[in-house]
């Protein structure tokens, strides 16, 4: 998204947007509570945060300072097999710059070989001369922080006198408790004072519909964000329109697929593959072989099938599978049950996998999501739910071990900063299988730190895992990855 000068119809309300190089703390979204008190207390202690967690809150409420795009190098290589990787990446960089109309400086990442980066600029818009506003829900507010316009389903309420084509402030109800369609008569300052609720200011934009249409149509762009807090290009349509060439993906997710080191001819399992970003990356890297990609919901597996057909990745075999019961065998006479990966022919069956069948397994586990940057609230997540999520992940880890060949590689990852789901699960896995599994050194450490010393006491083990800390690495979300090898006995 670029900063756009409002139309002449709202020129009387134009505000200045100043680009700043220093970090200011006067934005309202830095002052709201992010976690339940017991969750914050736990994270502060486990992560040894001397400031009581303020730096963590600020880091998570701020989008990454770069947008990242993965290049589908296999597509470019098919067009010219004689090109080197460097030549392919330069061709892709120039193509992406052209798609973005040369408005942004597109660069190759220095550490992740198939990653392109686009800068995110922090801006400081003002609502000083604006009277009217709209209120959006939390999910819409988070999307705006990441570069999206405001679509009508995300609008909760407005001030009394908004009109089409006028410049208004965008407020977000962090708890999404505002009554749909409500008309506020308060000023913006009063809304942000706390007396009316938990509201934050996230930028300015031009209304694209009349008020009635916003709440009646339930589709379309209700407001074009012209003065965001963070200026970045919108990548919403990139993976749809240019899907053969590019995939919008965070840089940590790209690292995970490289940790797996896919090779031609490998038999690989992606245990929790939806929505398909890592699976298609693995397919792009391996080029040929067998890639079983699973989800327990058929609707998500159907989308993986569609993705496979669009990209032409014939090695992808999407199946319906509950990862916690991956090797469970039922009645062999049941026509709805396929018992081995080699027999996969349909997404309609419930599948079960052979033990010790796969050369490599990726377990990008369902998680609490406490690492997602540009987030405005995690208050729905309790300490007990964090424990339950970690327990669920252990069931997946146990099944991943069973289907992995001796000598095979397992990569475990999450998009959370919760130590229970990360370092504690690594220790549990090592203890559970003891002499049968080894935690090995993970490469691509440029954006990662070692594990938490409060959890992993052994420094040699601690140095082998990758903890992506959003406080110290503004390029990334909060993320975690560990690489294991199943020992040959």
UniProtKB/TrEMBL annotation:
GO BP: RNA methylation
Molecular function in Gene Ontology: RNA binding; RNA methyltransferase activity
Catalytic site positions: 415 (nucleophile)
Positions with a binding annotation for S-adenosyl-L-methionine: 272-278, 295, 322, 364
Annotated segments matching region Disordered: 1-21
PROSITE patterns, alphabetized: NOL1_NOP2_SUN, PUA, SAM_MT_RSMB_NOP
Ranges of compositional bias, category Polar residues: 1-19
This protein's UniProt keywords: Methyltransferase, RNA-binding, S-adenosyl-L-methionine, Transferase
Domain SAM-dependent MTase RsmB/NOP-type: 167-487
Family: Belongs to the class I-like SAM-binding methyltransferase superfamily. RsmB/NOP family.
Protein name: SAM-dependent MTase RsmB/NOP-type domain-containing protein
Species this chain originates from: Naegleria lovaniensis (Amoeba)
Phylogenetic lineage: Eukaryota, Discoba, Heterolobosea, Tetramitia, Eutetramitia
């Amino acid at each position: 998204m670029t900063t756009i000068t409002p139309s002449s119809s709202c020129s009387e309300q134009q505000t200045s947007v100043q680009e700043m190089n220093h970090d200011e703390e006067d934005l309202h979204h830095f002052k709201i509570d992010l976690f339940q008190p017991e969750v914050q207390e736990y994270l502060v202690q486990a992560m040894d945060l001397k400031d009581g967690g303020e730096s963590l809150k600020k880091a998570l409420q701020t989008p990454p300072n770069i947008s990242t795009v993965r290049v589908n190098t296999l597509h470019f290589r098919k067009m010219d097999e004689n090109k080197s990787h460097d030549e392919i990446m330069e061709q892709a960089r120039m193509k992406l710059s052209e798609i973005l109309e040369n408005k942004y400086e597109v660069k190759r990442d220095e550490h992740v070989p198939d990653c392109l980066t686009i800068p995110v600029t922090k801006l400081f818009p003002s609502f000083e001369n604006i009277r009217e506003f709209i209120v959006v829900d939390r999910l819409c507010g988070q999307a705006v922080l990441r570069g999206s316009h405001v679509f009508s389903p995300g609008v909760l309420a407005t001030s009394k006198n908004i009109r089409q084509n006028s410049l208004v402030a965008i407020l977000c109800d962090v708890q999404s408790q505002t009554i749909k369609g409500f008309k506020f008569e308060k000023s913006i300052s009063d809304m942000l004072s706390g007396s009316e609720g938990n509201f934050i200011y996230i930028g300015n934009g031009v209304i694209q519909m009349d008020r009635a249409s916003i709440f009646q149509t339930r589709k379309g762009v209700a407001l074009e964000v012209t003065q965001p807090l963070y200026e970045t290009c919108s990548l919403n349509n990139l993976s749809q329109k240019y899907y053969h060439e590019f995939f919008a993906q965070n840089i940590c997710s790209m690292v995970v697929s490289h940790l797996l080191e896919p090779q031609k001819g490998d038999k690989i399992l992606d245990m929790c593959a939806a929505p398909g970003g890592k699976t298609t990356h693995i397919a792009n890297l391996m080029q040929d072989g067998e890639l079983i990609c699973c989800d327990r919901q058929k609707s998500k597996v159907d989308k993986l099938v569609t993705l496979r057909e669009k990209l032409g990745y014939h090695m992808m075999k999407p199946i319906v599978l509950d990862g916690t019961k991956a090797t469970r065998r039922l009645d062999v006479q049941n026509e709805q049950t396929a018992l081995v990966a080699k027999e996969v022919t349909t997404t309609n069956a419930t599948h079960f996998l052979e033990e010790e069948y796969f050369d490599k397994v990726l377990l990008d586990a369902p998680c609490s999501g406490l690492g997602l940057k540009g987030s405005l609230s995690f208050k729905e997540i309790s300490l007990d739910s964090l424990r339950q999520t970690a327990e669920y992940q252990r069931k997946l880890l146990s099944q991943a071990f069973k289907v992995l060949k001796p000598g095979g590689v397992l990569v475990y990852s999450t998009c959370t900063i919760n130590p229970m789901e990360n370092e504690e699960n690594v220790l549990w896995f090592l203890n559970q299988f003891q002499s049968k599994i080894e935690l090995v050194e993970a490469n691509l450490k440029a954006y990662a730190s070692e594990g938490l010393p409060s959890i992993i006491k052994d420094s040699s083990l601690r140095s082998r895992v990758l903890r992506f800390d959003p406080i110290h690495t503004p390029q990334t979300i909060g993320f975690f990855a560990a690489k294991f090898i199943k020992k040959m006995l």
